[in-house]
Design a protein that fits this description.
Number of strands: 13
Largest sheet: 9 strands, mixed
Strand content: 15-25%
CATH superfamily of the largest domain: Spore Coat Polysaccharide Biosynthesis Protein SpsA, Chain A
Shape: globular
CATH class of the largest domain: Alpha Beta
Radius of gyration: 20 Å
Strand order of the largest sheet: 5-4-1-6-11-8-12-10-9
Distance between the termini: 33 Å
Organism: Humibacter ginsenosidimutans
Order of helices and strands: EEEHEHHHEHHEEHEEEEHHEEHH
CATH architecture of the largest domain: Alpha-Beta Complex
Number of domains: 2
GO molecular function: UTP:glucose-1-phosphate uridylyltransferase activity
Enzyme class: transferase
Keywords: Nucleotidyltransferase, Transferase
Helix content: 25-40%
EC number: 2.7.7.9
Number of helices: 11
Amino acid sequence: MAITKAVIPAAGLGTRFLPATKAMPKEMLPVVDKPAIQYVVEEAVGAGLDDVLLITGRNKNALENHFDRATEIESTLVAKGDIEKLRRVMYSSELADMHYVRQGDPKGLGHAVLRARKHVGRQPFAVLLGDDIIDSRDELLTTMIEVAERRGASVIALLEVDPEQINLYGAADVEATDDEGVVRVRGLVEKPAPEDAPSNLAIIGRYVLQPEVFDVLEHTAPGKGGEIQLTDALQELAADPDGPGVYGVVFRGRRYDTGDRLDYLKSIVQLAIDREDLGPRFRPWLREFAAGLDDEPVQGDVIAEPGIETPGHD
């Protein structure tokens, strides 16, 4: 069955970005000149998923507004003859067939995915987490969809990380397959201690799931943090000897983590320098600015310890 639906959980409070997210959803934080959520929806559409369901929560109306028509702005731009800005404004409202449902209780990622059950029905679907932006020049989701359609299995995205940082992610125990860059998942552990991790392959925020995951999530007990963990449901699917199993696509492209303040700043710089309209002017300034820095902290600098800012989906 062709995969056409994408689910994007977007109900988190964004506490790592307070006070900026006190009144604005974290998904609407700008990355250069587009909100982070638009990059994720564009990725889904680029992979052929034009039916997009956002799992939202309280104070998330800005998400719906962003993907809706803004007739006042459009009329103003038409009157000014600013056709390029008009095109960019209208683009987001024509991007996909957008749907919305509230998560209700904040019971974790697994619970958020389960809330998509009625919309998705009994067909495979993709889940994209809004904290992860995958560079549009690097293939990931299309490969995952191809593997899922060919094998009839659920597929997760994996990324090699520093073994000392694996405790910030879900970790995968894997075995090789005949497909380069594709592994079979034998087991999954949510945020293990480095010494207990089965590998340094971390789960990142892209999944292509078979509808059977809903049946598993229905009886998945709360795990770490008292939340229903999607990782726990995938572990059950991977361990089922009679099922199609779970596979992983090892991603080696460019990924931008906008869920962490430092990585969010890096994401803006990395994406801006590659822009044709900004890069030629931004790069020379950035080189000059960097040349004026030294390795010694100045008064007031705070040297963060590893692990203070952790990736996740709050």
